[in-house]
Design brief:
Layout: H1 2-5, H2 20-34, E1 40-44, H3 47-60, E2 65-68, H4 74-83, E3 86-89, E4 111-115, H5 127-140, E5 143-148, E6 171-175, H6 177-180, E7 189-193, H7 198-209, H8 214-229, H9 231-249, E8 253-254, E9 264-269, E10 293-297
Helix pairs in contact: 2-8, 3-4, 3-7
Length: 308
């Protein structure tokens, strides 16, 4: 990456949209992973800015309400509240819970937001649920926005993402390479979006956040190449899976469901914790059906307090 950064002019503004080679790399990657070539790739400085950009874009389009499958990431809650956009949950449970049911809106041209996987629990939304949404989307011509920041991080190394099969003319899908590589200091994510919306979305985002960090642009090129190889993401997921299995085998943690992706899990901790340990429980995720559960980062340096 340092070699690539040598060729960047740090005296000029840098824009991801000028990086046509990077956009093509991402498009080719998704054609390989998903079997579907994206209509348009818009890169940005991290998932948070892109999520806020999506909310601002919807506001400019005159959107007054959005439906969502709980949970919705707090950035979107803050953004929609700030723009005065009403948010309406369409289920009283999260998709990994038993007896989860959708109550999809009946009006045409709705906007639906979902997070896949459910980040705090390491649980992908099932293909059956995505198929139900796909059929509804086709019937109602509704826009679906997917926060897929933690996609392509399956413990079994599968790269199948059912949300890739949603209608590309009506779907925005956010992907975060820096999370796949666990390199959070670099701010680089991108949205796969309909070609007809690229101008409006790019205008909204760029006028809010300006140019990109030059080093993050250099990182973007290297990140996509590493993700295509899969070596680093697979090793990270192997470590997360191993640590989860080890903690379960020691009865240090327990849960009624089995996570299968990412590096966050949501479980009961059965070992004595330091007094200053802060539990991130269900109230942080609008989740009150799992008393005693807490979010655990399997890659955290402090994971040893659980007995690893």
């Amino acid at each position: 990456m340092k070699e690539r950064a040598k060729h960047i002019n740090y005296g000029r503004y840098t824009y991801f949209d000028d990086e046509l080679e990077l956009s093509k790399k991402i498009s080719d990657l998704h054609k390989e992973l998903d079997g579907v070539e994206p209509q348009y790739v818009f890169c940005g400085s991290g998932s948070t800015s892109l999520l806020y950009g999506i909310a601002a874009y919807l506001n400019r389009k005159g959107t007054k309400k959005v439906y969502f499958i709980p949970p919705m990431y707090f950035t979107l809650h803050i953004a929609f509240d700030g723009f005065g956009i009403q948010t309406i949950p369409i289920s009283d449970k999260h998709p990994f819970e038993r007896d989860f049911k959708l109550e999809l809106p009946i009006e045409e041209g709705s906007v639906l937001i979902l997070i896949d996987p459910i980040w705090y629990a390491g649980a992908p939304i099932s293909p059956d649920i995505i198929n139900e949404i796909s059929l509804w989307q086709k019937k109602t011509k509704s826009t679906v926005i997917v926060d897929g920041s933690l996609q392509y991080m399956a413990w079994d190394h599968s790269t199948m993402e059912p949300t890739a099969q949603l209608d590309p003319y009506l779907t925005f899908r956010l992907i975060c390479p820096s999370k796949q590589l666990s390199s959070h200091g670099y701010r680089f994510s991108y949205v796969l979006l309909p070609i007809l919306e690229k101008q409006s979305f790019a205008w909204t985002y760029t006028n809010m956040f300006g140019s990109a960090n030059a080093d993050s642009v250099a990182f973007g090129h290297e990140a996509i190449e590493e993700i295509r190889k899969r070596t680093i993401p697979n090793k990270i997921m192997d470590l997360a899976s191993y640590r989860h299995s080890l903690l379960r085998s020691k009865s240090a943690i327990e849960s009624v469901y089995n996570p299968s992706c990412g590096y966050f899990i949501f479980e009961k901790i059965n070992v004595k914790l330091p007094q200053d340990y802060i539990k991130v429980d269900g109230k942080y995720f609008d989740q009150d059906n799992f008393p005693g559960y807490t979010k655990i980062n399997l890659l955290s340096p402090s994971i040893n307090i659980l007995g690893i």
